[in-house]
Amino acid sequence: MWFSPVIDHTLAAARLVIIGAMVAALVTACGTSGGGRAGPDAGITTGSGGAVKVALLLPISASGSTPAVAKALKQAAELALFDFNNPSVSLVPKDTHGTPDGARAAAESAIHDGAELIIGPLFAQEVTAAAPVAHQAGVPMIAFSTDEKVAGNGVYLLSFLAGRDVSRIVGFALARGKRNFAVLVPQSPYGRVAEAAFARVVTQGGGQAAVRATYPPDDASAMLGPVRQIANAIKSGQQIEAIFIPAGKEELPSLAPLLTSSDVTSARVQLIGTGQWDYPNIGSEKALVGGWYPAPDPKGWSSFTERYSKTYGDTPPRIASLAYDAVSLAVSLSQNPAGQRYTPTQLTRGSGFQGVDGLFRLLLDGTSERGLAILEVGEYGPKILEPAPNSFTNASTQY
């Protein structure tokens, strides 16, 4: 959907390039919260009269494009507080400066101020630095990093994690009778994670992947050979009912024309992707029209974007929904008695929570699980083939 490699997307975004739809969303989503370099208390307490204090750790005064993301995350968090209108909750922003030392100081300041829950930080290194402070104080942390290595021991990752959506799309394809697959995978950390998840689910479902082709994601000229390898397998009569292509906004514009010229399109053989296909105008890639991929129901993001834009006069980056959902979770649990609001049992309740991106729940290992829809690429926008589940009890192939 929007999150790529096994590396920390947000960190990659801030340091390198802002990754695609959700990552351009997920990481162009590393926002700004305005203002000069202040101490960890930078920012204004929202709803300061609230007895339940929730800290928001963001790289407000970091370098580069990161502050723009922090601003968007902060605004999305404030929008949630406004929408749910619970005066008992105070949102207390803390500036991490985008550094481990800054994150540690921000966490210490949050604990000193009486925070019962910490939302953020954004980068894996920040999470690693702040987590021991929060853990020692018994305060859980809901972070935005995509690096699973920092999860656990009181740290929960609300971000979209690489490979976690693969079971949803493969399960759907198997249910539609697809048993014989080919894989066209980028030689990248994300590609390796996605392919490993794919292999597990296909094997468990009684399918097989007899054809495998890989390509360097940053070399368009080297993509033709792997595409022809799959095209030739199809022409030779090898049984291939679906092709798994875990690529995104960075690779697909170069890959899709080669698929079209090689007659490898969804009109001939079913193409399936991951959440990285969830970016605007993917339908302009003719080869992908008719392809299937897992993603949140678009209506949730559309509604959130409309409210955000009306409030702040700007379009939010894709990652902004995470801050909104984290605060909505915090508000929903705030009515519990002090000391029982944000316990592991409450945070990881089996029923989960509903957010902008649909159903989600935090897991005891610190990762998260989501209920996703199955979308079909359309020339003028996606079509929902199977809706997202409304509860985890009926979500047999959730992510």
What does this protein structure show overall?
The strands form 4 sheets. The chain has a 5-stranded parallel β-sheet, with helices on both faces. A 4-stranded parallel β-sheet has the order 7-6-8-9, with helices on both faces. The chain has helices at residues 9-15, 67-84, 100-112, 124-137, 166-175, 189-204, 224-235, 252-261, 298-312, 320-333, 344-347, and strands at residues 52-58, 89-95, 117-119, 141-143, 155-157, 180-186, 208-215, 242-244, 270-272, 292-295, 353-355, 358-362, 368-370, 373-376, 383-386. The chain is built from 11 helices and 15 strands. It folds into 2 domains: 31-159 and 319-366, 3-Layer(aba) Sandwich (Rossmann fold); 166-295, Rossmann fold (3-Layer(aba) Sandwich), CATH 3.40.50.2300. Strand 12 (358-362) and strand 13 form a beta hairpin. Helix 2 (67-84) runs parallel beside helix 10, helix 3 runs parallel beside helix 4 (124-137) and helix 5 packs parallel to helix 6 (189-204). It is α/β, with parallel strands linked by helices and 399 residues long. The N and C termini lie close together (12 Å).
